[in-house]
Design goal:
The protein has about 375 residues and is mainly alpha-helical. The protein folds into three domains: about 90 residues, no CATH class; about 90 residues; about 130 residues. It has 16 helices and six strands. It has a three-stranded antiparallel sheet. The N and C termini lie far apart (about 80 Å).
Length: about 375
C-alpha cells in the first residue's frame, strides 16, 4: 500500500515539474535533488522533511517538497531554515558530546557487523570525539576549537574535520562550511625505501624456497612473499590469491576497508620469467586462506599477515611485506609504459589514489624518458 501511494505521490510531483526525488532515509522522508542552499554551490542535496516515512505522512511530505521547490524557483536558492525546521529548532534540546557519541556509534554500526576491523575504525571516530569534554554541550564552536587543537595540514586535522562534519550533519547543527574551511587533505608521505628490482629479486630468491631449518619442508611464508612481489597484492590479499593458468595473472580478492566486502580483480605478473623460477603456480597449503568471500575472516587474516611479516623481517629488517607491493607499483610504471589506469586496476586502487601515491616515481620516469629522447635526437 505504501509503495503504491509513494509512486502516485512521486508521479504528481513529476507532473508538476518538480525535479528531484522523494526518498526514505533512516526512517524519515527526505527530498533529494540538485539545487543551491543559502546561495551556496549548486549540487546534489538531501533535505529532511522532518516527518517519519509512512503512509499517513505522504501528503505532508508532498506539501513540504512543493514548499522547497517554490523557494528554489522564486530565489534560485533554498533559504533555510524551512518552516518545519524552525519548529524543530524551537523544540530542540541541548545535545551533549556524550549524546552525539552514542548517536554516532548507532549510525556507524547500523549496517556493519562488529569485528576487529570495524571496531578499530570506530575507535578512531571515538578518539576524535574525546577531544571534547563528554558532558559539554555540543556546538559548532566547540568542534571548531577541537579542530584547532590539531596541527595544520596534518592527517589528524583532516580526520577531525571528517568526523565533526559527519557529527554536525547527524545531530543537525546546521551549516558545516566552517569545518570545510579548515579541512585540507594532508600531503601524502612519500613511500619510504621500496626495494629496487634487483633487491626484490634477491628477497624472493632468498625466501621463496626457505625451509624451517629443522629438517622440515618449504615454509608457506615464502610463497606468500613471492605472491605479493609477483602480483602487487596487499599482504592480506595474498591469502586469497589464486594464480591463473601458467601464472601470468591471478585472481585476487580486493578487501574493501569501509565494509569488509570482497570484490574480485585480476592481478598481473610483470616478470614472466618468475613463473618457472618461483614456481608461482605451485601454491602450498596455507594455514589460512579464503578462496571465496564467505571464507574471509579479518581476525585470522591479520594474525597470519603479522606472523609472516615478523618472519620476513628476520631476514630483511629494513623492509616490510607492503614494500613489495610498492615495488610492484613502481616497476609497473616502466613495464606498462606509464599505463597508470591498468596498474591501478591490477592493484585494486582508485586511479586518483594510485597517481597521488606514486606521483614522484611517475614524474621521475617521465623525466628519464624525456632525457633519453633528447640524447637519441642529439646522437642521430
Amino acid at each position: 500500500m505504501l509503495d503504491w501511494n509513494y509512486e502516485q505521490t512521486s508521479k504528481r510531483l513529476r507532473l508538476s515539474g518538480i525535479k528531484g526525488k522523494l526518498e526514505q532515509h533512516q526512517g524519515n522522508w527526505v527530498w533529494r535533488g540538485v539545487c543551491s542552499i543559502d546561495r551556496g554551490p549548486k549540487k546534489q542535496q538531501r533535505i529532511a522533511l522532518g516527518i517519519p516515512a509512512d503512509l499517513h505522512t505522504l501528503l505532508t511530505a508532498e506539501d513540504r517538497i512543493r514548499t522547497i521547490w517554490g523557494r528554489y524557483l522564486a530565489d534560485g536558492t533554498i533559504t533555510r531554515p524551512l518552516p518545519w525546521e524552525l519548529k524543530a529548532l524551537e523544540l530542540k534540546q541541548t545535545i551533549t558530546v556524550a549524546d552525539a557519541t552514542t548517536a554516532l556509534r548507532e549510525q556507524f554500526f547500523a549496517k556493519k557487523a562488529e569485528n576487529s576491523s570495524t571496531l578499530n575504525s570506530w575507535k578512531r571516530l571515538q578518539n576524535e570525539m574525546k577531544r571534547m569534554p563528554a558532558h559539554a554541550e555540543l556546538t559548532m564552536d566547540l568542534m571548531i576549537e577541537a579542530i584547532h587543537s590539531t596541527k595544520k595540514l596534518s592527517r589528524s586535522r583532516h580526520q577531525a574535520c571528517q568526523t565533526y562534519k559527519r557529527v554536525a550533519k547527524l545531530v543537525d547543527l546546521g551549516d558545516t562550511r566552517r569545518i570545510d574551511d579548515l579541512r585540507v587533505t594532508p600531503t601524502p608521505k612519500r613511500i619510504i625505501n621500496p626495494p629496487n628490482p634487483e633487491k626484490v629479486k634477491h628477497i624472493i630468491d632468498t625466501l621463496r624456497f626457505a625451509t624451517s631449518g629443522k629438517g622440515g619442508g618449504e615454509m608457506w611464508q615464502g610463497w606468500i612473499v613471492a605472491a605479493i612481489a609477483s602480483y602487487g597484492s596487499r599482504p592480506s590479499e595474498a591469502f586469497g590469491l589464486m594464480p591463473k593458468g601458467e601464472g601470468t595473472s591471478a585472481h585476487i580478492w580486493t578487501i574493501k576497508r569501509k565494509n569488509g566486502h570482497l570484490v574480485k580483480r585480476t592481478g598481473m605478473l610483470l616478470n614472466p620469467e618468475w613463473m618457472t623460477q618461483l614456481a608461482i603456480t605451485d601454491r602450498p597449503e596455507l594455514p589460512y586462506e579464503f578462496i571465496d568471500s564467505s571464507m574471509y575472516d579479518p581476525d585470522k587474516c591479520k594474525y597470519y599477515v603479522n606472523q609472516t611479516n615478523r618472519w620476513f623481517q628476520r631476514y630483511f629488517p629494513e623492509h616490510t611485506l607492503y614494500d613489495l607491493r610498492h615495488a610492484w607499483a613502481i616497476n609497473a610504471i616502466t613495464v606498462l609504459s606509464g599505463n597508470s589506469v591498468l596498474a591501478a586496476k591490477c592493484m585494486g586502487h582508485n586511479h586518483a589514489v594510485h597517481c597521488t601515491t606514486y606521483h614522484a616515481w611517475m614524474q621521475d620516469a617521465d623525466v628519464e624518458s624525456a632525457v633519453l629522447a633528447i640524447q637519441q635526437r642529439t646522437s642521430s
